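User: Can you recover a sequence for this backbone? Please restate the input before giving your answer.

Assistant: Of course. Working from this structure:
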């Protein structure tokens, strides 16, 4: 039986207004999470992963921009030009003794001399090991390119897709689970009855969503700043220019996108009164959170799938941002997608508020969704 009719109505003079109560609850949500070790540790770990991934991309994907220093001994000028064209910085030594000294001092990585018997016409000398890196650099390689797009951008596109998807999934999942667990705990410990005697149920819901949204946006900005810092330190400024516009749109999409997810988690949590029952209501919400990541992971190269999902509210923050990174998106497309997302978020918030206020004081067995929607306020 619903106990909604027994909602405390006493002491109206002690009840806060909706706006004041919303700010109070939001402040409590923020301070509680910021002080928790799990929140701090997870944020630090995520930042380390982002920065580490950027440096790994620079290390494994780059490295060709810095020429390798070598010392040339009695090598004709035209051969020196060919060596420099292979990505070497050539220092012409006057004698083998001078070249050996440069090698021992670490000024060069190898010594280059003429060798008519060599397939490439030169002989390489290392210090205490064969100069395999320099040899591979001198090896005859065919010219390579891609049919469509830029080969240098393909790896960055993959990292951008994974970055947008992971940031949205990790932040939304962490904050969403926190909303769900706190709400169930308040019901299980009957704290919610005390809270509702002082503040309206809608203010409690709004405060939870507002506080966690501020935290989530803060986390997303920290992660974005970490990515920018990593790109600047690693010298990949060309990628920073490519990402700046999509990252701005991602933040804009992230705000209503997270509010949408937070509303679903809060409404789902109000349906149960025990942590043991949280799995039944958490699973659908978690699937919505993980959907954007798996969409870009599976359909990244499917233009039609990316087009369609960029207009679906639960996936738009990630897929539209990736389409903006690819380019070729009409100016009105992100605006239309944003409009659909905001309208859907407003609708879901209204439904979530109805479910939340009608189910919050119902204890015991799980409240069915149909019953929560049909019951009277």
């Amino acid at each position: 039986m619903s106990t909604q009719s027994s909602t405390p109505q006493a002491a109206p003079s002690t009840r806060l207004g909706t706006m004041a109560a919303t700010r109070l609850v939001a402040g409590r949500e923020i301070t509680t999470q910021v002080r928790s070790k799990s929140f701090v540790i997870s944020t630090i770990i995520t930042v380390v992963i982002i920065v580490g991934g950027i440096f790994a991309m620079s290390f494994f994907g780059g490295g060709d921009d810095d020429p390798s220093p070598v010392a040339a001994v009695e090598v004709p000028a035209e051969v020196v030009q060919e060596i420099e064209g292979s990505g070497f910085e050539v220092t012409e030594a006057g004698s083998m003794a001078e070249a050996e000294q440069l090698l021992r001092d670490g000024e060069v990585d190898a010594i280059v001399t003429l060798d008519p018997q060599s397939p490439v016409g030169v002989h390489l000398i290392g210090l205490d090991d064969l100069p395999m890196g320099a040899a591979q650099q001198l090896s005859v390689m065919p010219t390579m390119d891609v049919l469509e797009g830029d080969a240098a951008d393909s790896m960055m596109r993959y990292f951008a897709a994974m970055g947008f998807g992971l940031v949205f999934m990790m932040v939304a999942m962490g904050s969403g689970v926190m909303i769900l667990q706190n709400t169930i705990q308040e019901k299980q410990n009957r704290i919610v009855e005390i809270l509702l005697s002082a503040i309206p149920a809608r203010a409690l819901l709004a405060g939870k969503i507002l506080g966690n949204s501020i935290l989530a946006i803060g986390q997303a900005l920290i992660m974005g700043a970490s990515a920018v810092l990593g790109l600047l330190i690693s010298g990949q400024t060309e990628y920073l220019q490519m990402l700046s516009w999509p990252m701005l749109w991602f933040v804009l999409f992230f705000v209503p996108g997270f509010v949408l997810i937070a509303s679903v988690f809060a409404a789902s949590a109000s349906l149960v009164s025990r942590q043991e029952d949280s799995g039944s209501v958490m699973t659908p919400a978690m699937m919505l959170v993980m959907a954007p990541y798996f969409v870009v992971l599976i359909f990244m190269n499917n233009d039609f799938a990316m087009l369609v999902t960029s207009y679906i509210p639960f996936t738009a923050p990630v897929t539209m941002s990736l389409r903006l990174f690819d380019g070729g998106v009409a100016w009105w497309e992100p605006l239309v997608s944003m409009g659909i997302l905001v309208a859907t978020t407003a609708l879901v918030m209204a439904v979530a508020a109805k479910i939340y206020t009608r189910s919050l004081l119902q204890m015991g067995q799980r409240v069915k969704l149909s019953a929560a929607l049909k019951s009277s306020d």
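That completes the design. The first strand starts at residue 68 and ends at 73.
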